[in-house]
């Protein structure tokens, strides 16, 4: 590693540490020539696949565009930013794990919709209405019915769970 101060190629590693996740290595280095110290970071460099759009054009994967789309759908919704970042991380991890050099934009859209459906139903419907380019109210209604189709368990119906009123009266 070349010294950033004097340019000498002879440096020594004085300390090496990994971060908590084990995906970044921090190294403290000392230049043999000028005795100055500096820090370097070593991380895995994975290439995200290129996105193939509906019209056939290809573009580089854009984290900011993915994040912006999800945040726009989630605008003014009660979802923690940590949950959004975790969802974005899952989408990116899924894209990387596919091992493809190119992925259709439709696949990315489906991954986004799957994550939004878990995070917030309203955001899911917002995104789906734009992504699927609804032509009429019937298509919109269909997505709403799809979201509502999941049966919800009433509180207290799970084994060993008390209904809220049981707690109030000490039963």
Automatic annotation (TrEMBL):
Binds 1 zinc ion. Residues 49-139 form the ATP-cone domain. Residues 1-21, 148-171 are annotated as: Disordered. Keywords: ATP-binding, DNA-binding, Metal-binding, Nucleotide-binding, Repressor, Transcription, Transcription regulation, Zinc, Zinc-finger. One of its GO terms (molecular function) is ATP binding. It comes from the Bacteria. A zinc finger (unnamed) spans 3-34. The keyword Transcription applies. InterPro entries: ATP-cone_dom (IPR005144), NrdR-like_N (IPR055173), RNR_NrdR-like (IPR003796). Its cofactor is Zn(2+). GO terms for biological process: negative regulation of DNA-templated transcription. Pfam families: ATP-cone, Zn_ribbon_NrdR. PANTHER family: TRANSCRIPTIONAL REPRESSOR NRDR. Belongs to the NrdR family. This is Transcriptional repressor NrdR. The gene is nrdR.
């Amino acid at each position: 590693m070349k010294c950033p101060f004097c340019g000498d190629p002879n440096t020594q590693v004085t300390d090496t540490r990994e971060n908590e996740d084990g995906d970044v290595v921090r190294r403290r280095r000392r230049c043999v020539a000028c005795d100055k110290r500096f820090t370097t970071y070593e991380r895995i460099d994975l290439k995200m696949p290129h996105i193939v759009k509906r019209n056939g054009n290809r573009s580089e994967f854009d984290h900011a565009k993915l994040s912006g789309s999800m945040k726009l759908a989630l605008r003014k919704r009660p979802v923690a930013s940590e949950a959004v970042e975790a969802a974005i991380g899952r989408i990116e991890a899924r894209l990387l794990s596919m091992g493809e050099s190119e992925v259709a934009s439709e696949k990315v859209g489906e991954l986004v919709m799957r994550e939004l459906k878990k995070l917030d139903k309203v955001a899911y419907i917002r995104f789906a209405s734009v992504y699927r380019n609804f032509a009429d109210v019937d298509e919109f209604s269909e997505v709403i019915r799809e979201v509502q189709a999941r049966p919800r368990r009433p509180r207290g119906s799970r084994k060993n769970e008390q209904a809220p009123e049981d707690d109030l009266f000490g039963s």
